[in-house]
Structure formats: structure tokens, C-alpha cells
């Protein structure tokens, strides 16, 4: 028997290589009707210099020619009978480009706010699991000769770095254009017997690894606890597993709201240098200031530090286009502190503690444990958690900071002017803040459910104002530079 060109002795190895990792599987199992686990990548394209205009059919044809460079776009999920193991990816699945690549229209006048509305609608619907887990939307009707390309990719298929690398492959390549590939035949679906036999072999492999995972876990936990005793308790840092209740933490709805804003990357770097902190520390400090204002607005108080989930990639390779390579740090945010400089100092301390704990525990340990999530029980457990109106015991908010491309890309001959990215909201946590740099821009994306905020531009306003406050106390001008390569700012309707 052969499977997709494999010799009989190799078919099970092929299935093993295509199996979802623990992280990938967890992100699949934790998706529920109100928690959508897709990520969004948004590029705003300037089309003024494109001869003949820039139309949907041109974009669709260009992307279709490049599908052979985007292998994960033809992956389809295959469940294991009786849920005896994590699913596998079926390579070379057939794709319906009319489903996957779609035009949408931005209402007049076609600015940032109107684009954010379209992205909100796109984020509010889950991907169809019977198809490859991605869609691309071509947004027309924008002002100033712009269009937007909105990529929607399931987090189980690719994390933020892998999704960005996929998008980079879809962009124009340096040198000659890639030749159009020959049509690829669809892969053969494995039989039930093949799936079960491969699952059994993989379980045996995992069982052999379990003793080392247990030993490394005991060592890592012991290190973290020992170091915590050495540090002692800091009165202004939140205790782990004890986030306070906030307006962000509730049973999330399936409806999403999106907002974006752009800051000058040069000014951000200048401010971080003036304050003596890293870019990542400054992102978290700006977020802490913004969240303080939102807490005062919606809860009427900001009297205790909160906890932020801060994912970090463990593989930044530009060649990685599939899967998740993540670790997650939990950092205290000093939202209860009114003094901006003191917030920066405490944020820097908190991130140093979070990074040290991550190293002491082992950056790969969480990922290794994810492999043992039980497929039979996990989906039901996550559905129960997503509807449980109880306090999240891990964190209050998700915040990501990712360094993006430093050179401008092109898409079908048009210049990519802006690049935004955002991850999903989580069960019990209705707000995600993602910061993504691109050439001269620091682009802020906010995703929340409609129960957290009806207008997420309140959050982007708060981020901009928080940064201006830090510029002021650092001795710089509070008048922020408008980034000419980005859309004009959209503010909340007060």
C-alpha cells in the first residue's frame, strides 16, 4: 500500500510529520462558538503607481500563481477516529479559490475607521474546518488609491511569525517572477486503519518521552519557586494565578471589534532609549498606561496590578511557514500607579521577572506538555470554560509585540504601505493588544468582543495618549509625529 507517493514502510512517518503539535492541537480544541482562534494579517497597499489600476481579479490571479509557494494553504484538517490522537494535516487538499479569496467593500469615505469596521466583521466569523483554514479578503473602496488585503489564518495552522512569512511569500519576489506551477493533484486521504496505526505508534513515542518531561518539570518548578523565595514579594507586582476582576474579563461574545493606530517607530525607539528600557518594556508600559485609563473609565477604579499574557516566539526563522513555536510569559502590569515613570520602572522589573521565570522553567516545557492534551476530553472542557462566568485564573489581557519587516514589500507590483497583525481573544479575556513594527511605523491593533468595548478606538486613543505622556516625562515633545506613510488616525466617537 502507498500513501501519496510513500513506500509502505514510510507512510506512518509521513502521518507523524503531519500531526498537529501540542500547541497546534490546543489552539484547535480551544476554539468554541464564541472564541475564534484565527489570527489576522492586514496589509494596506498603495496602488497609485500601478499601471492600469489594481483590481481584485489581478490580485486573485497573482495569488493563484503563487499557491505552490504556500504549501500550508493546501493543508486540510483530518480527525483521528474516536479522537484517539491529535488530528493531522492532509497535504495538497483541493481548494476553492472563490471561497478562500474574496472581495469586500469599504464604505465611504474609505479611511482607517471604515477599514477597521470591515476587519471587525471578518474577525467575527470562524473558519470552516472542512476546508483549508484560511481566507484572504481584498478590500476595495478605500481613499487615496489604497486597497487592503486581509489575511485570516487559523492559529493552529500558523502563529504570527509563520503567518507573516507566508504573507511575505505571497508578495513580489526579488529577481524574476516565479514560474506558474503545474496543477497539483489532490492528496489521498489516509484510511481509518492507517490513521489508527500511526496514532498508536506516536503514542508509544510520546510515552517514552514522558519521564524526561516529568523530571524537567519538577526541576523547572523547583527553580522558579526557589528564585521567587529569593526575590521576596514585591508589593506592586501582581501575584501569579491571582488576576483581579476587570471589565475585560467575562464570557466573551462571538462578535469582534477591531481598531488600529500608527505611531512613529523612530519616536518609539528614541523614547525607549531615553527611558533606558527595551522596546518590549516600553510597549508593555504604554499598554499599562492605556489600560489604567480604560479601567478608570469602565470599572471606576484601577487599584491593583493586573496580569498580562505575553506570547513570545521560540523560532523566528524566516523559512518557518507552518505551526506554532511559542512560549507564554505572564507579566504584572502596574495599572494602579498614576506616575508614568514609576509605571515604566515597575514594568521593566515585571518583565525581567517574567523572562527569568520563563528561562528557569524551560522555554520548551509548556510546548512539551501540550502534546499530552487528551483529544477526547479537551474540546468539551474548553467549551465549558468558554461559557463559565468565573474569573480567569491566569491573566487579564493578551499583549504581543513582534518586530516586523524593515523593508517595504510589494504585492502584484503595488507598494505595501502598512502592515498590521492581531491575535485572537481568549476565553474569559475579551481584549488583545498586538504591536507590529513595519519600516518606519509602530502599528497598534486592538481586538475585543463587543461586550468589552463597543468602540475599540477608545483603546487605541488610550495607547496613543499613554505614549504621549511617556514622551512628556522623558523630556520630548508631546506632539507626536504623524507618520506620512500610514492612514490618518481614527479616534473614538465620544
Summarize the structure.
This protein is α+β, with helices and mostly antiparallel strands. 36% of the residues lie in helices and 19% in strands.
Features:
single chain, 494 residues, alpha+beta, 6-stranded mixed beta sheet, 14 strands, disordered N terminus
What does this protein structure show overall?
It is a single chain. This protein has 494 residues and is of the alpha+beta class. It has helices spanning 11-17, 22-29, 56-65, 97-100, 112-123, 160-170, 192-231, 265-275, 279-298, 340-361, 365-370, 378-386, 457-473, and strands at residues 38-46, 76-78, 88-90, 101-105, 134-140, 146-154, 256-264, 306-313, 326-333, 397-402, 410-411, 414-422, 431-438, 441-449. It contains 13 helices and 14 strands. The strands form 3 sheets. Strands 4-5-6-1-12-11 form a 6-stranded mixed sheet, with helices on both faces. The chain has a 6-stranded mixed sheet with strand order 7-14-13-10-8-9. Strands 2-3 form a two-stranded antiparallel sheet. Strand 4 (101-105), helix 5 (112-123) and strand 5 (134-140) form a beta-alpha-beta unit. Helix 1 packs parallel to helix 7 (192-231), helix 9 packs across helix 10 and helix 9 packs across helix 13. It is globular and about 65 Å long. The N and C termini lie far apart (67 Å).
Strand order of the largest sheet: 4-5-6-1-12-11
The rounded Rg comes to: 23 Å
Low-confidence stretches: 1-9
> How far from one another are the termini?
67 Å
Find the count of extended strands (DSSP E, 2+ residues): 14
Percent of residues in helices comes to 25-40%
Binned strand content: 15-25%
C-alpha geometry: globular
Largest sheet: 6 strands, mixed
- Average pLDDT confidence is 91
**Order of helix and strand elements from N to C terminus:** HHEHEEHEHEEHHEHHEEHHHEEEEEH
Amino acid at each position: 500500500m502507498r500513501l501519496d507517493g510513500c513506500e509502505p514502510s514510510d507512510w506512518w512517518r509521513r502521518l507523524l510529520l503531519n500531526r498537529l503539535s501540542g500547541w497546534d492541537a490546543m489552539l484547535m480544541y480551544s476554539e468554541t462558538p464564541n472564541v475564534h482562534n484565527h489570527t489576522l494579517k492586514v496589509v494596506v497597499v498603495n496602488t497609485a503607481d500601478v499601471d492600469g489600476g489594481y483590481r481584485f481579479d489581478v490580485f486573485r490571479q497573482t495569488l493563484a500563481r503563487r499557491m505552490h509557494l504556500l504549501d500550508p494553504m493546501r493543508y486540510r484538517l483530518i480527525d483521528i477516529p474516536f479522537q484517539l490522537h491529535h488530528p493531522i494535516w492532509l497535504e495538497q487538499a483541493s481548494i476553492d479559490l472563490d471561497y478562500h479569496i474574496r472581495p469586500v467593500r469599504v464604505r465611504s469615505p474609505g479611511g482607517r475607521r471604515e477599514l477597521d469596521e470591515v476587519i471587525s466583521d471578518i474577525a467575527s466569523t470562524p473558519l470552516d474546518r472542512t476546508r483549508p483554514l484560511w481566507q484572504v479578503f481584498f478590500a476595495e473602496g478605500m481613499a487615496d488609491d489604497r486597497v487592503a488585503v486581509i489575511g485570516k489564518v487559523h492559529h493552529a495552522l500558523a502563529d504570527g511569525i509563520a503567518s507573516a512569512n507566508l504573507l511575505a511569500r505571497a508578495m513580489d519576489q526579488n529577481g524574476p517572477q516565479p514560474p506558474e506551477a503545474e496543477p497539483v493533484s489532490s492528496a489521498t486521504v489516509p484510511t481509518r486503519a492507517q490513521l489508527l496505526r500511526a496514532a498508536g505508534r506516536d503514542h508509544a513515542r510520546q510515552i517514552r518521552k514522558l519521564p524526561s518531561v516529568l523530571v524537567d518539570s519538577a526541576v523547572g518548578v523547583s527553580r522558579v519557586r526557589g528564585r521567587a523565595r529569593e526575590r521576596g514579594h514585591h508589593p506592586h507586582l501582581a501575584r501569579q494565578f491571582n488576576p483581579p476582576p476587570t471589565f475585560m474579563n467575562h464570557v466573551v461574545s462571538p462578535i469582534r471589534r477591531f481598531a488600529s493606530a500608527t505611531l512613529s517607530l523612530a519616536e518609539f525607539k528614541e523614547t525607549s532609549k531615553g527611558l533606558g528600557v527595551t522596546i518590549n518594556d516600553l510597549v508593555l508600559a504604554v499598554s499599562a498606561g492605556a489600560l489604567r485609563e480604560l479601567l478608570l473609565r469602565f470599572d471606576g477604579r484601577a487599584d491593583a496590578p493586573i496580569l498580562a499574557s505575553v506570547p513570545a516566539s521560540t523560532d523566528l526563522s524566516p523559512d518557518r511557514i507552518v505551526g506554532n513555536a511559542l512560549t507564554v510569559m505572564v507579566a504584572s502590569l502596574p495599572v494602579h500607579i498614576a506616575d508614568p515613570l514609576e509605571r515604566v520602572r515597575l514594568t521593566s522589573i515585571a518583565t525581567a521577572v517574567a523572562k527569568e521565570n520563563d528561562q528557569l522553567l524551560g522555554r520548551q516545557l509548556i510546548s512539551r506538555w501540550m502534546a499530552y492534551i487528551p483529544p477526547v476530553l479537551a474540546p468539551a472542557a474548553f467549551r465549558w470554560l468558554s461559557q463559565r462566568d468565573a474569573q480567569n485564573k491566569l491573566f487579564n489581557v493578551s499583549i504581543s509585540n513582534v518586530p516586523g519587516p524593515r523593508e517595504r514589500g510589494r504585492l502584484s507590483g503595488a507598494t505595501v504601505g502598512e502592515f498590521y497583525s492581531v491575535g485572537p481573544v481568549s476565553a474569559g479575556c475579551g481584549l488583545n493588544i498586538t504591536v507590529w513594527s513595519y519600516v518606519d511605523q509602530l502599528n497598534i491593533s486592538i481586538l475585543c468582543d463587543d461586550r468589552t468595548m463597543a468602540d475599540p478606538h477608545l483603546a487605541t486613543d488610550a495607547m496613543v495618549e499613554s505614549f504621549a505622556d511617556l514622551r512628556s516625562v522623558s523630556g520630548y515633545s508631546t506632539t507626536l509625529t504623524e507618520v506620512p506613510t500610514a492612514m490618518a488616525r481614527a479616534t473614538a466617537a465620544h
